[in-house]
UniProtKB/TrEMBL annotation:
Keyword terms of this UniProt record: Cell membrane, Endoplasmic reticulum, Membrane, Transmembrane, Transmembrane helix
A Pfam family matched in the record: DUF2053
Full protein name: BOS complex subunit TMEM147
Chief location of this protein within or outside the cell: membrane
Membrane topology, from the record: Multi-pass membrane protein
Amino acid sequence: MTLFHFFNCAALTFGPHFVYYTATPLSEYDTLRTCWKAALVYLGTTLVKLVCLATFLQVSENDTFELSQESLKALIGFLDVLGLYIALTQLTYRNISQNHKFQAVGLCWAFADSLLHRLAPLWLGARGLEFTWDYLLQGLESNASLVFTISFAALGSLMWLRKNKPKFIVPLIYVAAGVLAIMPSIVRLVSMLNVFVMKIKAYFQ
């Protein structure tokens, strides 16, 4: 039963990436090299982010929401935007159109993110004897990240690769970049609010 729960959670977390790859023309073109390059750029971006977080952020003794620290995290989060910019514009890809390029970059960026942040927790936690919804919610979070990353890569492709672009695209790019940068802070704030609400319910019960 525990392995069944693990495979269900793993399929929910990583399955949509493979479905997207096989169901779209990406599988018919030479996009694997593009995927590997995007994944390597993501790993390099994540490494730089970790170094910046370890260097500039202070370790808080109590688990509270500090605006200054979260603002610094959001500023460091813009490195993801820079990484996507490098993956879309600075790397050379052969025999691939612009339409397939942003899909391949967005897909592999999201897959590398899920693999790096969710595989180990799934393997260590989802095989436990006690059922929990946390890993199913983690899979849904991975799907939301996939949709958001491909959407942002599409906007970035219009912004950075297309010369004659509509003017309304530019504000959307900035909004998406801001959301991408502050996403960890948003998730943290929602999680803390959820814990706070649960404590209030437990108090009144």
